[in-house]
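ok trying again, last paste got cut off:
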Amino acid sequence: MKRGLTTALAAVAIMTGAAGCTSDGSDKPASGAQHLAPAKACADGTSTWLNVSRRSVLTDMTPGTHYDKGDKVSTRDVKEIARYTVSVRTRGAGLPEKRLIRDLGRHLKLGLVGDGVTRADDSGRTTKYDRMGYGEQTAEASGRYVTARAVELVEGDYRYACKGGKVSSGHVVTWNDAYEVITVACGGKPDKKASEGEREAARLGCREGDPARA
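nice, full thing came through this time. structure:
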């Protein structure tokens, strides 16, 4: 399906799903190092989130290509430059991966990949592009354009406590259940509100001296 873009950056529904150890995506306890205790944590504990970050990262990009004014510029055929996988690392009593991701999502008020709710089939545990959703816009002027795709990577450390005190801690990596399709006109100045992913696409895909890299 095609999605027309009216701006250089637009969000569309993500069709896929940050690197590290992974579980099988079920509600089984997330796995950790061999020395961790296999015991399950209490069901009525509370999670505290620390060092939570959200950042736009490029996953796919095509370097600057010349288009004439009026040509269609599409992100459909961008090439993968990085791949991320849903990851949960746990120390202490085991906790279900989906529960931890849902807790992080509630903390941020976001739907996150791997929470078992945002996507009914829990598909797309990596950012691999399946090309079913892409952006397209018309070149407003002749020149070089960079097309790219990015996701908002979400990471955080957690501490899980039962009535008797902390029983588990660890780190979660996932991303917002939406991706950015990016088109950068190398001959134009960057938007002040451009995401980190868009600025990275301009830096990597445009030539030195192009206004978009300012």
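cool. The radius of gyration is 20 Å. Residues 97-108 form the longest helix (12 residues).
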